[in-house]
Amino acid sequence: MRESFDRIVVGAGLRGLLALWVAVWVIGFERPRRSPGAIAALALRTVAAWTLLPLTLYLLCYIPYYAAHAPALYWHYFTLSPPSLVAGVRFSMEQKIAIAQALEAAGIDTIEAGFPVSSPGEAEAVRAVARAVQHAEVAALARCVDGDVAAAAAAIAEAAHPVIHVFIATSDRHLERKLKIDRTSVIRAIGNAVRTARRHAAVVEFSAEDATRADEIFVRQCVATAIEAGATRVNIPDTVGWATPDEYAERIAGVVRFVADSSIIVSAHCHNDLGMATANS
């Protein structure tokens, strides 16, 4: 599309330059014989016209075109969820609502309101945020477990724009030491969770937890399974702040190339354990 647009602009610019050159040439010879200084000035004006006209035309045409076709950047605000995962740290329902409304006013696209299965109070807080937010998406976090997905779906049932965000570990270290399951079980869990989530929400995000320490081919298998099951977004988290900017950029780019579907959003999620979160983002 960009190449076609450039050809159109170049063609129009050349036609405009030809017309201008002819006009300047005719005007120059219709007037009485000019002095050497006048001829030099005319030559300079002609050169300037040849140089500036295509640049001006390109900018006037391309800037609006680029504004309409530039890649979109979406903001998924996650910080309301982690407190429910950390002992002794919690936002009250009122605090969550106030933060969510401020985020909506700031133009955040997706507000992740919490982890409903973690407690009845957390589930009620997510429901309250879902009712309070009218324009932004409201997401609920869930592991790839039936009970988690059911709790998330119930909590965001009243949201104007609901999102269910499911996640599961993908690194062998997490599978062996935390979940104590194999890769086949992970693939099965992803498919089941995403299919269940899609029955409750049109937008489902899948996160491959600890993706930067996982086998890259296996992460792509997880992503493919999630998309096939109905996920509309895939997230590649640097869960323990392990990656460097070059490494993380290549991971994200690799997933984008693998997905090769502009309707699927590929997102980043960075941690600051080694002070690299901003650079990685």
Features:
7-stranded parallel sheet, 281 residues, elongated, 56% helix, alpha/beta
In short:
With 281 residues, this protein is an alpha/beta fold. It has helices spanning 2-30, 36-69, 93-106, 120-132, 146-155, 172-179, 183-198, 216-229, 245-259, 277-280; strands spanning 76-77, 110-114, 137-143, 162-169, 203-209, 233-238, 265-270.
**Number of helical elements:** 10
Q: Secondary-structure element order, as H and E? A: HHEHEHEHEHHEHEHEH
Biggest pleated sheet: 7 strands, parallel
Please mark out the parts with pLDDT under 50 across 5 or more consecutive residues, or reply none.
Answer: none
Structural class: alpha/beta
Question: Based on DSSP secondary structure assignment, what is the total number of beta strands?
Answer: 7
Anisotropy-based shape: elongated
Mean pLDDT across every amino acid position: 85
Strand content: 5-15%
Radius of gyration: 28 Å
Please state how the strands of the largest beta sheet are arranged side by side.
1-2-3-4-5-6-7
Helix content: 55-70%
Amino- and carboxy-terminal Cα gap? 28 Å
Descriptive report:
- Helix 9 links the parallel strand 6 and strand 7.
- The chain has a 7-stranded parallel sheet with strand order 1-2-3-4-5-6-7.
- The protein is an alpha/beta fold and about 280 residues long.
- Helix content is about 55%, strand content about 15%.
- The longest helix has about 35 residues.
- The mean pLDDT is about 85.
- The protein is elongated, with a radius of gyration of 28 Å.
